Amino acid sequence: MDKLKPCIHGKIDTGEVDLYLTLAVYNFGFWFNGVRGFVILDDMDPVVAEVSTSGDYTIYSLSGNCSSEYINRLEWSLGIQEDLTMFYKLGMDDPLLGEFIRKYYGWRLRSTSLWWALIIGVCQQNASFIQGWRMLYNIIRLYNRKVLVGKAEVLLPPTPYDIVSNKALLINAGTGYRANTIYNVAKTFANKELDQDVLVKSSSIDIEEELKRIKGIGSYTARLSIVLAFRKYDLPPIDRWLRKIISLVYKVSLKDSEKMWMRKWGKWSGLAALATTIALDAKPLSKAIERIKNRQLAPIDENKPTPLNLWKFLK
DNA sequence: CGCGAGGACGTCCTTGTGTG
DNA sequence: CACACAAGGACGTCCTCGCG
User: Fold this and answer.
1) pLDDT tens figures, A229-286
2) Alpha-carbon distance A303 to A123, whole Å?
3) What are the residues with a C-beta under 7 Å from any atom of nucleic chain B?
4) Which nucleotide lies nearest residue A132, CA to C1'?
5) Which nucleotide in the DNA or RNA is closest to residue A128, CA to C1'?
6) Cα-atom radius of gyration of chain A, to the nearest Å?
C-alpha cells in the first residue's frame, strides 16, 4: 500500500461556507465521519487532503512535497471561492428551492475528478438514489484501492487501469448492464482519449458532445459529470424525476420543463438541479410529490439514507 | 434526409398480496 | 405477526419509426 506523507498544513478561511454540509452531502462514511473528511485531489497519482469541519487541513502526497497549487485545488473542490450570490438571489423565493436555499446557504458542491464523476453518473442511470450510491460503494469496496494517509487507511476510487484489468469485479458490484458503460469509460481514459485538463477549456456544450461519444453515456450522465467535475452549471442534468417535479411546481408541460428550468436558473441550472435532490432527500417520485404538497422542502433526517446523511449508512 | 417522439431494454427497489 | 414472493415502479440510453 502506498504511503502518503504530509506536505502542507493550513486552515481554510471558510467565509460563509459550511464545511460540515459540504463534506457531508453525497459522501461515504470512509471519507467523512461527521468531523473530518478526506478530499481526493488527485485520484491517479494519489494526493489526499484531510479536512476538519472547522477548516484545518493537511495535504498528503507520495513524495511529501507538493506545490501550493494543491491548496487552490482543495479550495476549488470545496467551492470555497464560488460566489453564489446570484444563485441565492434567484432562488430565495422559489417555491421549490427557496426553503433549502435559506436554510442551507452554506452548502457547496464537492467536486470530483471527471473520471469518478462519470462513474457516479452511470451508476445513477435507471436507479434510485440509494441503489446508485450502493453501486458506487460496492465498486470502491471491491476494488479496495487504499493508501495510507498519516496513520489512517483511506480508500480511493479504482483507476481506469484497475477497471480495464479486472472488469469482473464491476459485475459483482451490482452494476448490471452499467458495467459495460463503466468499462467503456475506463478504456477511454486508459487510452488517453479523454483528458480533463484539455476538456476544461471547452464549453459545456462541447464537453457534453465529447462525453456522449462514449457508448452508454447520454445527455443526463454527461451533464451530471460536467457539474461534478468542472463546476459548470449552465447545462442541467434533468432526469424524469426532476422533469416531473418541474412540470408540477411551475405548471409547465414535461416537454417545456428543461427550457423553463434554464430560463429560471440560467448558468446555475445544474447546481439547482442537484440542490433539488438534496432538498427532497432524493425521495422516489411519488414521495417527492407528497413532500412538495406538504411543503416539506428541506432535508429531513429520518433514519433512512438521504444525500445529506448517506455517510452514516455506507461506511 | 434530419429530427424528434416513443418504445424496448435492463436492474434493483418498493409495495402489495398471500402463506404459515 | 413474520416472512416469501410477485408485480409494478423508478429510471437513462439506445434505437426505430414516421413525419416534415
Assistant:
1) 999 998 888 877 787 788 778 877 767 777 788 888 888 988 998 898 888 888 777 6
2) 23
3) A 125-128, 130-131, 134, 174, 176-177, 255, 284, 287
4) B12
5) C10
6) 19
